[in-house]
Write a structure and sequence with these properties.
By secondary structure, this protein is of the alpha/beta class. The protein has 15 helices and 25 strands. It has three domains: about 5-230, 3-Layer(aba) Sandwich (Rossmann fold), CATH 3.40.50.980; about 275-400, Luciferase, Domain 3 (Luciferase, domain 3, Roll), CATH 2.30.38; about 405-500, GMP Synthetase, Chain A, domain 3. It starts with a helix and ends in a 7-residue tail after the last helix. The structure holds methylmalonyl-coenzyme A and adenosine monophosphate.
Amino acid sequence: MSENLFTLFTARFPHDRSRVFLERPDGSVLTYADLLARSGQLANTLRALDVKPGDRVAAQVEKTAEAVLLYLATLRVGAVYLPLNTAYTAAELRYFLGDAEPAVFVCSPQRLDEMRSLARDLGLPHVETLGPDGRGTLTDKAASASTEFVDVARAGDDLAAILYTSGTTGRSKGAMLSHRNLASNASTLRETWRFMPDDRLLHALPIFHTHGLFVAINITLMTGSSLLFLPAFNADGMMRLLPKATVMMGVPTFYVRLLARSDFDSAAARHMRLFVSGSAPLSAETHKEFSARTGHAILERYGMTETNMNTSNPYDGERIAGSVGFPLPGVDIRIADPQTGAALPQGEIGVIDIRGPNVFKGYWRMPEKTKEEFRSDGFFISGDLGYVDAKGYVFISGRAKDLVISGGYNVYPAEVEAAIEAIPGVAECAVIGVPHADFGEAVVAVVAPRPGAQLDEKQVQSAIAGDLAKYKQPKRVFVTTDIPRNAMGKIQKKDLREKYDTTFKAG
Ligand code: MCA
Ligand code: AMP
């Protein structure tokens, strides 16, 4: 039997196809009948563009219902969906597209000229457009295509998506996710979080990452429920839609921003049954303030691009502030000695290792890198540090990897340091995360100039603006001759974090 994720979704769609799948802020809707017909048209369009099973379909597009349909059409033709952050610069895209070699690249109409020339350089056969209004060459072509499409059969192990994640050293890696990886996690989460066909999920996350695309949308499709679809987070829009919603998913910054409003109270959350947080640590203060204000305990869970979701606080039972809950059914969590990989006794802090049907197949065209990040018994080494308490709750206590998470986006210091060190006049640079009231952490660079070179903050910021997505760019750059090193010559980031940690406390 085919394990095509889309085919598995359709088995869960409401029998009454006139039920709403997605509602836009202006009240216009996409029903399940629309979803089937329009994803069918897009699937026929992809096929007409010669997309074959296993080919990649890359998209750097604004968040629209049509972008969701493009993801579904890609599954239907048996191709591999590659969503790209809309903040990526042309320099970043060159790497991703060169590495993934998509058969079709869909970009925003405004970037068409630039992207055509990039595609020509890279030898990519097709560039199509899709704009923030859901229109472009792609949907123009689809409008005249047949709505009928027979989904391509897929094995559970076949690839459904590639999502790039940066690395602590060197190049970004494409995490290869199979149909079974995504299906197993969506089913598990549906059951764990008790999704029902009447649920309405308030969706304000971007749809180029695991959280917004797979956790939120796949669960909805696995349940046959519906989405209230905001193009991006804004607190006013959230307040307007909350009374219509039953569930919300967000990064901690969403909750911090809602709590900053005096009109966000128990009345605003009256119809809600569940608030989920993830992608970055939710502070215990935010958790407690949220409970006090609304009477709801936020359910925190823990995931990664490579694994989808691994742990969750319980639906029934105590949701503990500061904990990411229990391993999900079918997911094994082991706390390992960072040096030897040996399992540690309960209560001790070590690296969190993960095994289960949710764990990815490896990094695209990087067999060596893949091997390094798995243990011989199949556990994936997350790079997060944590422990399990006596009741079985998992706590994340730090990171073995040098990573900053800003507003739910991961920034790898190594990538920012390399961009800054390429600026003439820079001798060396250290990038750190410092506390930030809104984003959780903010990216800060400490830069040492070469002898005789003149450098200032603005100069460094403007030199990297074309290279790195905005969220990776340091919010502050400090020029100093004093970058502390230990006896081994290694930069002491802990000292730097202490020295510069007062910067963003006011938010
Ligand atoms: C925007 N900016 C940011 C960020 N977002 N800078 C640092 N970190 C960010 N996250 C920049 C903007 O370009 C702008 O720059 C300035 O900061 C302020 O913008 P603002 O209007 O405040 O930003 P926003 O548009 O409101 O965005 C904040 C946001 C957004 C809503 C928190 O970043 C967001 O939606 N984050 C969610 C990320 C996410 O989905 N992560 C899940 C990854 P300027 O003003 O200078 O132009 S999946 C994952 O991690 C795993 C698998 C998991 O477990 O889920
Ligand atoms: P990504 O590479 O975007 O998939 O980010 C995955 C990383 O986000 C994990 O390895 C964790 O470091 C972090 N993360 C996700 N959820 C949580 C959470 N609830 N608490 C703390 N960190 C989290």
